[in-house]
Amino acid sequence: MLEATEVITEHLGPADLQENMLVLKFSPDLLTELHGLMEGKHLFDAILIDVTRCGFLFTAEVMVQSAQMAKNLLQIGGSLVFLKLDKAVAVSRDTLTGTLSFHIFESHAELFDHSPSLARHIKAALGRSSELGEESTDLSQQVLMTAIPVLTSLGIKLKAGLEGNKRRNMVLCAVDSYSQLNALCHRLVDQDKLSISDLMEELRALEQAKAIYPLFAKVPFLVNCFKNKTPFGVEDYLVASKLMNQEQVDDLVIEIQNMPMRERVNIGALAVKRGYISGRQLAIAIQDQSFYGQKSDSEDVKKVMKRSSDDTQVQALVGHLGNTDPSNLLQNIAQNRDTGVLSVEFRDLAFKANYETGKITHAKVGKIEGNKAIVEFCSAWKEGIFVFIKRQPPPDLAKESCKLSKVLDKLLLDSALAQDNADVVLAKLPKGINSVLEQLPDEKNLLEGSEELLDPKEKTPISNRELGYMNKVWKVLDGLTPLQQVIFSIGDIVSSDACRGVDLLLHYGLVNVPESDVNTPLSNFQNLLRKVTEKIGKERSSAFLRLALRDTIGYSGRARMYVMSSSAEVGIDMVAAKATGTSLSTVVKDLENWQVKFIEFVSQELDSNVLLSIIREIHPNQ
């Protein structure tokens, strides 16, 4: 065994998963705190800013200045994350020169796909259990388990010698540069030679010692590209997978450009020639690019085929719901007589169904279980990423309450009827499922059953079940949230049933569609503020703004939902608005009264003709 190989072998210890991280609470002093950290000249892997109390409702100036300071606070690849309980926004430092990228995560599952290690930090920072568990989503799990570990030249030498740690030798023997990770699991884990955690630990250790090419870094990159239907080039793949750094790729690009036209080669071939990767690793890169980097007009459903001779490998279906109908998807898997679990992810929701030789036995989506889960999925879902993997159902899906009592064909007919009924109701609303509805007082206690309610068409008494739909929907309508989000927030009601409740509530005058939204009055107020501030300055404008709010609303809890910045800007904290139960009509009225009072204060300092000109410009019809 070569001496250099022996030295490397000594460093093949457990993978170092510790990263240096800082958690800050959002406050008016945030920028000052970040500036103080810059003076310490310490670089962090992650800086988490807890905005769970205020949401993302702060001025863009805070975001921009924080991002600028992040260039001097983060390691390469590090992230500055503004964190809510259910969503996150991240600014990442991508290069040595400080180039930044911006990421929006609609759910913690998306964040996990982007960076599992960062997600675990966030779980710890929140101090609570959440979907940010150690396990990945089905899509990222599928990407990882079908990945192929490839030995480097050092790994080949280590495998030839097989000295030292017995567990490591078992993994080295199993890695042949052609077998997928799920095949390695069968050989080592299923046969009780290693645990799955031991296998992953050894693979990470081999990766860190450069005995195998980077394996784990490409998972979030490929997941995000597939979810967003984003095509990518080999050079993007090489950098994202940490096979090469950006500087090395840039050098190869320049080298190719300086070659005579007839001698030019592609960047992958040149990377092999220069010794950055092997020919086998390049073949896998091209394979990944072909599968995960397709454009949106690619085939509807993709099947991961076996890439080795091992018959135990798991086959999987993956694709986008936008390209295939939910009903067709369920039927296709049934016709193939497959056994496994179908998982469809969309934002914070996940639909899961268990198949046994083509028959759906269990299903759930959120809190909806059994037959209703199939109806909800087929009648209401339009988007999502689906993955079908041959595996045992998770415990939450195998419950008796998730068991189906009807055959698939009957459930699909129920779904079609549910969708038709929902479409009739949604056609009455100005923006369909995205319409905002406002709760009206139940002065006659109709929702408490004070009198018998009749169906507006059939003139027959509505059932207690339908009365229950009305109550569930009515209680959460706030005049601020789109109907689709309202239904998701309830969690245990099928969309068609919620629409039925909305239809009855509209008929009996218990809800209405607000005549205006908050955007127009808020935009007018902001434009007025900007023009007045140009005339009298930020300091005076901010002072008048605070005084006007005090005289309009006072120091009530409702006043806390309105946000003011030191730059004389105004916004609305929708989280606080919902927490106080404030309706859209009240918000609009508050903004109008606040604006009128602000104008009264400004009129004491600004020339009346100038002020009148500004008002006419902002409100030409008043």
Overview of the structural elements:
There is one protein chain. The protein has 622 residues and is of the alpha+beta class. The protein is built from 26 helices and 16 strands. A seven-stranded antiparallel beta sheet has the order 6-7-12-8-9-10-11. Strands 1-2-3-4-5 form a five-stranded mixed beta sheet, sandwiched between helices. Helix 3 links the parallel strand 2 and strand 3. The longest helix is centred in the last third of the chain and has 19 residues. The N terminus is likely disordered.
Helix and strand topology:
Blueprint lengths: L2 H8 L10 E5 L4 H10 L4 E7 L9 H11 L3 E10 L4 E6 L6 E6 L2 H7 L1 H11 L11 H8 L7 H9 L4 H9 L6 H8 L7 H13 L9 H10 L6 H7 L5 H12 L9 H7 L5 H14 L8 E4 L11 E5 L5 H10 L4 E7 L2 E8 L2 E7 L2 E2 L1 H10 L4 E5 L18 H19 L11 E2 L24 H13 L6 H8 L4 H13 L3 E2 L6 H18 L1 H16 L8 E3 L5 E3 L1 H6 L4 H19 L5 H11 L4
Parallel strand pairs: 1-2, 2-3
Antiparallel strand pairs: 3-4, 4-5, 6-7, 7-12, 8-9, 8-12, 9-10, 10-11, 13-14, 15-16
Helix pairs in contact: 2-3, 4-5, 4-11, 6-11, 17-18, 18-21, 19-21, 22-23, 22-25, 22-26, 23-25
